[in-house]
Write a structure and sequence with these properties.
Largest sheet of chain B: none
Structural class of chain B: mainly alpha
Mean pLDDT of chain A: 87
Number of helices of chain A: 11
Oligomer: heterodimer
Largest sheet of chain A: 2 strands, antiparallel
Low-confidence stretches of chain B: none
Order of helices and strands of chain B: HHHHHHHHHHH
Number of domains of chain A: 1
Strand content of chain A: under 5%
Strand order of the largest sheet of chain A: 1-2
Number of strands of chain A: 2
Chain lengths: 262, 268
Amino acid sequence: MRYIAFAWAEWRTRLAYRAGTPLAVLASVFTVYAMQAIWKALYHSPEMVRVGGVTASGAVSYMVLTRLFVLIMDDTWTLRLMMGDIRRGDVVTKLARPVDLQGLLFAHTAGRHLHTFLFQLLPTLAVSLLFVRVGAPREPLRFLVSLTAGYVLSFGIQFCVGALTFFWTQVGSFATLIRVLGTLASGAFVPLWVLPRGVATVLSLLPFAGMYSTPLDIYIGQVHGPAALWGVALQVGWAAVLWSGGRVLYQLGRQRAAYAGG
Amino acid sequence: MSGVRLWSVFWMLVRYNVRSSLMYRGNFVMQQVLTLVAQFGQLYLIAAVLAQFHLIGGWTFGDLAFLIGLRLLAHGIYVFFCWMAITFVDSDLTSGAFIRHQVRPIPTLVLFLCQATNLSGVTIFGSGIVMVILATATGAVHWTLARVGLLVPVVAAGVIIEMSVFLAVACTAFWTGNSSPLFGVVYETLGEQFLLYPLNIYNLTVQLLLTVVPLGFISFYPAYSFLSLPAEPWSHWGLYSPLVAIAAFTLVWWLWRTSSGSYQGTGS
């Protein structure tokens, strides 16, 4: 219940800063437009009916949804908050509260993203549907489970890197690293099914694929049945590893911070 | 202040900024490596896409490598000199820090742009050179003396156009206090997404938008002067890039003087 209150508080904070929302929606609509134009141009040739087993409409749906989910998955707010708070020492006010830091930050992040979902993602989707067709999900339930696992996984990656600030104050490079991998190795920039088989296989085993590639491949029906189950299991496994890893790093870092005087 | 004196102050400030950037060497090296990984990772993915689809809007992989290379050459110089300052504008204005530029006997624009440099610009510029070499190796570009001579003014024009466009966006912060949402539209979508691919794959509205907001003159239009692409009505527009750059900078200079002149600090 306390965590819901934290999420609600963050939601209300975000509501106070609405001025930039229309321009943010405009930016997202432009991006969606660019994506569908690029992928329609790629499939323009008559012999390009299917690539990697995916039709033009499937590819456009995949890329359009990617640009929408980027609004949430690519938001490094949690990481930036942790880096700033730990470096400045402001984290002590959070550590002093009788709640778990990981749960607290997850609640804040979820509250922030609920605002993004309602006021940026949904309006962008509504406007985008005027010029692009997005197919319905092939397996809605599995897609939702996969998307949720991807969200927890994305938070887990950021929390792990953020917790490293307890050990090194200059973790900007790690932040850039996860940003680069989160874009290039996740299927957000180019779907993994376009890549050579060996490269795609390696990338699909990394946690970054769980953020976009796995849920969206399930959405467009590129993977289904046992392959979809395996993909979701891998996501859940990575989410558990990252959540636990983040907790261990945080506990060790907290001891270190206390040893240094807080 | 004379032009020569201004120029020496400019370079002195740049040198100080470079030295301060090199203080955290480990972080600096890591950032440069990651910039390279990001640039070439992106190019690899585009190559993988074109290995499947062969063409996009009639452009081959070599053509695209040149398009991206041309953009990175200009973008690298822009990032080195201007990127940090332009992204600081909101905090400079809301914190009142901008007022320090107004009490010094040097044009505010020069001081504003010289407050920080980003060494990643050098790596981006280097990536641009490698991509132009790659495009040449694929046979997309055949260098002649005239083309070599054209490259320098085209890249210089690209830098000035990029700086002018983003400085114009930064100027909105003087009136609204927050330029970041508009910056998101212009940089992340128009600059990053659209310019990565040839503009002829987009509809007429977007083509017009990127011609009026002259980002198309950074790489797309000039690329026709270097590549062996089918003739289009806009094939020679790239030759006018330097003129477009002068017009854009004149406009933004006036806009900057008008906007910054009205700034009165935070009162604290």
